[in-house]
Amino acid sequence: MIRQFIIGSFFTIVITAVVSCHGKEIKEQLNEQSEETVELKNYTEEKVTVQEFVTWCADKNNKLNKSKDIADIRFDLSYRPAPCMAYLELRTETYDFPKFQEACNHYYDMSYFNFRLEVIDGTGELLKYKLQSPAQYEERVKYTSFEMQKDIYLVQGNDTLLPGLFHFERIFEVAPYSTVMLAFDNKKFNKDSEFTIIYNDKLFEKGFVKFNYKNKQLINLPNISGL
Amino acid sequence: MKLKSLITTILISGLISFVALFIYNRMYHTKTAYIEIKKVFNGFQMKKELEKEYEKTQKGRDKILDSLSFNLKLMSKHLNERKNSKIEIPKDEIYQFEYNREEFLKLKKQYQEDNAVLSQKYDNQILAQLTQYVIEYGKKNNYDIILGADGNGSLMYSKESYNISEDIIVYINNKYKGID
């Protein structure tokens, strides 16, 4: 009986040890595999409703939305495909498909992104965060209105592209974040290929904040039924 | 019968070992690693990029200073030649020389200060992002502690297997580049 127990324990200890040692590698392999699966999945075959499409785009797992925390500031960049922009435009109106399609056509020339800067666990106005003097507030307002658009750009290969459209939206004391709507001319970059959007943060001095979009990430979207 | 009891024994002892190991890992095992701070800092892509930016700015400033310095040397040479030849030098030329020299020294000092401020600013930016990504790496890989070895005695010895500098460099560079 004792011999049985010793042999049994020996086998189990060996197996447990082997599993423990290789557990990390197996887990890493599984992670890599699951990431590859996400990358390779083709969404263009899927047919969804407009509402489902908007929800799909907002889902972080679908990689259209990127987020980066640097110390106390969170930077979020979300790609807004034309149907999302049309949906936002027509939100208050009664749903009408031809109208929706027409609205979509307004947005096909450019790639729209929503860029949000937020104080993590903060309150009050973003531009007043860690303010050192009243003059600095004025500087920040001026910067976000006129200078900031020069510090956000798209890099593809050796080409650098500034946004064709830039709008900084202030919501004052309502919440500790601000949103920038930016758009890049589709004729000036290849949407199918990999690119990086870079923001050189001079507002909170966090330096270069980069968001990378891989090949076909912007075009691998589900289809809206009827469109 | 003998085989059955053997299998039962193996299963029970396996289960007990597994539970014991699981509890031990959860409660007592601290997942620790260390990074070589200098190696990680130098391997960080952001550091390389900002270093280039800094050198570009510094070279631009040095060029301006070199040009001013060259003009000053020329002026000085002319003034000395005329002085040696005992030709009278107009006072406004001497004033001009003095003024240019003062301006040069002022600018040189200002650039030295600006360079120091810029270097400090870039270092802070690099450290802020590097720290953030190391924290994220630690959380993602369930580390309890990640130590920083900087050669000043804060970490005197550790097995090489605890050194995760290479993995960290890959991770922080991907995070910096915005790659998911």
Which keywords apply here?
A: 227 residues; alpha+beta; 2 domains; globular; B: 180 residues; Protein Binding, DinI Protein, Chain A
Number of strands of chain B: 2
Most extensive interface, chain pair and sizes: A-B, 28 and 29 residues
Overall pLDDT of chain B, averaged?
A: 92
Structural class of chain B: mainly alpha
Q: Report, as a whole number of angstroms, the end-to-end distance of chain A.
A: 73 Å
Strand content of chain A: 25-35%
What's the tally of helices of chain A? 5
- From the spread of the alpha carbons, the general shape of chain B counts as rod-shaped
The total domain count of chain B is 2
End-to-end separation of chain B in angstroms reads 56 Å
Count of domain modules of chain A: 2
Fraction of helical residues of chain B: over 70%
DSSP, total strands of chain A: 11
* Low-confidence segments of chain B: none
How can the largest sheet of chain B be summarized?
2 strands, parallel
Structural class of chain A: alpha+beta
What general outline of chain A do the C-alpha atoms trace?
Answer: globular
> What percent of residues of chain B are in strands?
5-15%
Question: What is the strand arrangement across the widest sheet of chain A?
Answer: 2-3-4-8-7
